[in-house]
Amino acid sequence: EVQLVESGGGLVKPGGSLRLSCAASGFTFSNAWMSWVRQAPGKGLEWVGRIKSKTDGGTTDYAAPVKGRFTISRDDSKNTLYLQMNSLKTEDTAVYYCTTEGSSWYFDYWGQGTLVTVSS
Amino acid sequence: QSALTQPASVSGSPGQSITISCTGTSSDVGGYNYVSWYQQHPGKAPKLMIYEVSNRPSGVSNRFSGSKSGNTASLTISGLQAEDEADYYCSSYTSSSTLGVFGGGTKLTVL
Lengths: 120, 111
Hints:
The structure holds two protein chains of two kinds.
Chain A: E1 3-7, E2 10-12, E3 18-25, E4 33-39, E5 45-51, E6 60-62, E7 70-75, E8 80-85, E9 94-101, E10 107-110, E11 114-118
Parallel strand pairs in A: 2-11
Antiparallel strand pairs in A: 1-3, 3-8, 4-5, 4-9, 5-6, 7-8, 9-10, 9-11
Chain B: E1 9-12, E2 18-23, E3 35-40, E4 47-50, E5 64-69, E6 72-77, E7 86-93, E8 100-102, E9 106-110
Parallel strand pairs in B: 1-9
Antiparallel strand pairs in B: 2-6, 3-4, 3-7, 5-6, 7-8, 7-9
């Protein structure tokens, strides 16, 4: 059974940093493309960014609102995905979901999400 | 404002069929067969219901179907059941630098 478990969310002040983790199990993590998707309170879904598998180059892509501030990385030896968030803004407040990404832009498995609140 | 346009709400009675539209442009919905749909119950994570416009993942009821015409994709739910009451989001790959976009979501109410 595929499981994705996010952790690391919490309350942080504007301008601060936070690192989210996503522990994966039940599939071959090293072969998977992984994405982060967020959802602000009461709002819709927003793609944040992704990382390809190392065999596909291991490259990253980001949505415009987070480019230059967020960094996605992976540790295939630990089956873990990371999201390093710097220079946080109040508008980054959201539940952050870790997802697997299919071959043609779809997100087939989702974690339960972790809440990040950016507030002074 | 979301890049893909969905109606804010739709409703239907048990047993009926409903359709949710998702309108984009030739740079996203109209340009690629990479449209997916997600169901989200309150307080839960989204669940993939349709991918590549009309494909259903294993385990998803065949009451859910997807289609596309031009720049508009559609999700149809037939034989509505109470458990279908949820928010539904469409998503599409896009040729813009953002790579992908979501719709604003549609709240389905089963009367």
